[in-house]
Design brief:
The protein is mainly alpha-helical and 195 residues long. Helix content is 50%, strand content 7%. The chain folds into 2 domains: 25-103, no CATH class; 108-192, no CATH class. The protein has helices at residues 25-40, 48-55, 59-71, 75-78, 81-103, 108-111, 128-141, 155-158, 160-170, and strands spanning 119-123, 144-148, 180-183. Helix 7 links the parallel strand 1 and strand 2 (144-148). Helix 3 crosses helix 5 (81-103).
Length: 195
Amino acid sequence: MSSPERPTDDIFLPGGKLRPGALTSSAAQALEEAIRLARETRWDCVRSPHIFMGLLADPGAAARAFVEHWSGAGRWERIGERARGVITALVPKIRLEMIAARSDTTTLQALVKSPPPTTILVGERTRTAPRAVARQLARAFHGSIIVVPGAGHMIPLTHAAAVVDAVRTAEPGGEASNVTDERKEDASWEGSMGR
């Protein structure tokens, strides 16, 4: 094991500067972009979202990281060329949305002063954090949660018909065919949420 005086596997030199050659040029570019975005969004440190936003400078790498983060390692190769193309094409839009979201200081309390009718879709297999956010938002907006069977995090891309059904359900007199509507007061869906 290396001592703190002579780190051999750290990307930083003593004093905080980057070790020359420790990063590939694309990794260094992503890190520089992450630092720039942290400053632009007025954060005093670089956090995970900034690293991801830094990756967005390389759409192919960002798309792969996004899919494998939300859907599991190796998923990028299994989704097919067409899906990879669609997701990669969305990266510039995702990048702008993340920058805007990180810069927005509107509080949840301000948003719920006059809540619109709200329905939140959650994939049956999504991660724990998005499920927790969905529960919090449903409570705050007096809304409902629809669990989409078999879906992960990217429901509009993987289960577009469920999104259409949810919109139809929200319309007066509308009826959905393949989604389960779980009211916010019913937490029983939590136990069935896989990964």
